[in-house]
Amino acid sequence: MSRMTAGGAIFPRLKALGVDYVFANSGTDFPPIIEGLAEAAANGEDLPCAVVIPHEHAAMGMAHGYYLISGRPQAVMMHTNVGLANGAIGAINAACENIPVLMMSGRTPVTEAGRFGARTVPIGWGQEMRDQTALVREASKWDYELRYPEQISGLLDRAHAIANSTPKGPVYLSLPREVLCEDVEASSLSDPATIRPSLGAGDPSAIAEAVALLAGAEHPLIISQRGVGSDAVFEAFGAWVERHGLPVASWWATHLSLPTDHPCHIGADPGTALAKADVVLVINSLAPWWPDRHKLSEGAKVINIGPDPVFDRFPVRMFRSDVTIQGETALILPALMQAVDGLPVNARASARRASLAEGSARRLSDERAAALADTAKGITKAQVSHALGEALQGECFSVFSELGAQLGPLACRERLNWFQEPHSGGLGWSFPAALGAQLADPDRICVATLGDGSYMFANPTVCHQIAEALDLPILIVILNNAEWGAVRQSVSQLYPEGHAARANNMPLTSLSPVPDFTQTAKASRAWTQEVTDPDEVAGAIEDALRVVLEERRLALLNIRVLPL
């Protein structure tokens, strides 16, 4: 094909950039794109798989989950301003977690008549905005509106390079229909990318400063929230902290940095260790501690490393940073670890290592005891988390927890075992993220564990339809407490003796009457089970996993748990 429409050129160019899937919810702005797809199919062209996703929030979540497992950014196509609005929460989530996504949406035709692609239906007038991109601008690293058809290839190259450069994140391209309808030269669409991403590896002098601080520390502490970047670094990091007796806290961890049973893992709360730490290494952590509750010791030095160590997207973030090192965690950490290893081992390392191992064993025993404690009053989140972890051991799995299962009671030992909801708090993330992860790795067991409110935010009818249409046999575990549990907990923390905390029914938190979520799943032929008896939890999880593995279809457990 020597020429094609600009709309038709999008998919071949995305293929050349390494995009596997385009998650799309089409609209009246899509005719030139759809015509281009049909023409390419008729000519046997190799293109990214175009997947129909009936809601843009699900499309963004799937792109997010696909990247977490594969490390390859995907594309999402949305319908003009209304579709972009639907995808805005996903854009915020992706930006918060430095997830590269190529976002595109059509723009209502500018012309009313006289030009091919001009307005034909009333929504052409109703959907026009003065600044459509404003819907996602704060969540985008780069945005632009296509002006001329010959720009399409170069702009996609630029968008892809910026999305994948440190710090990574979503980008947005607006696509006016008239421009998409115009022809472009097609001969170079499969050429290699013209712009390569830039990956930061850290300032060597800052790394040397951090190494000197760590080597001389008497009471070091590491706080890691968003993982360490790669399988190789995950393995090396675990061996390194054990070799030097370095405690690691996983405060509000969205990714796993260390096996939960590692002898140097001190659990989630860094409070006790932070109070006496003289050097704190913060690895890619938006909020490494709770300022009102956790206090730095006087004179402590803090090292911040990561793709955006000062988190400049956020107006207020006052965490101390005596040494700041920007770059990909997977590139900075090996350099730092190698340099520390080249120095004499700290004399305190052996004693720290022994003390940490003893504390880790005690913590694991306490967590297990709490998970198996008396359940006479009902099922607890800790019990479900422990049972799920037990059932998954020995399997290749990823758990996407959104106010659901708890890290700790749920044992995780591999880097991709655990992902928690982004700190941006855009609910409805875990269900579509697990779908995207399953698409990226069909042999992996992908579990979305979430609260009842989060399940409703996920547009469950849409997500179940996607799971059936694409044969994605994930496990859904709803921890259903019939309320906004996180809201209740927040109120009780701020006003422990207040009227709301003492009320039988706290205002604005109840989700009763609770829908029968199993019926939503059954509408798409999923296997379901309601669980209300603590004695049935472990067996129900095993039955659900059997369906996932043997029947290769989605299984949903609606587990009624006690309020927090």
Description:
The protein is built from 20 helices and 20 strands. It folds into 3 domains: 3-185, Thiamin diphosphate (ThDP)-binding fold, Pyr/PP domains (Rossmann fold, 3-Layer(aba) Sandwich), CATH 3.40.50; 204-361, TPP-binding domain (Rossmann fold); 372-560, 3-Layer(aba) Sandwich (Rossmann fold). The chain has a 6-stranded parallel beta sheet, sandwiched between helices. Strands 11-10-9-12-13-14 form a 6-stranded parallel beta sheet. A 6-stranded parallel beta sheet has the order 16-15-17-18-20-19, sandwiched between helices. It is α/β, with parallel strands linked by helices and 564 residues long. 39% of the residues lie in helices and 16% in strands. It has helices at residues 6-16, 31-42, 56-70, 80-96, 123-126, 152-163, 177-180, 204-216, 231-244, 271-276, 329-341, 349-371, 381-392, 430-440, 452-457, 460-469, 485-494, 499-502, 517-522, 537-551, and strands at 3-5, 21-24, 49-52, 74-78, 101-107, 143-145, 171-176, 183-185, 220-224, 248-249, 265-267, 279-283, 301-306, 323-326, 397-402, 418-420, 445-451, 475-480, 527-531, 555-560. The longest helix is centred in the middle third of the chain and has 23 residues, at 349-371. The model has no long low-confidence stretch (mean pLDDT 94).
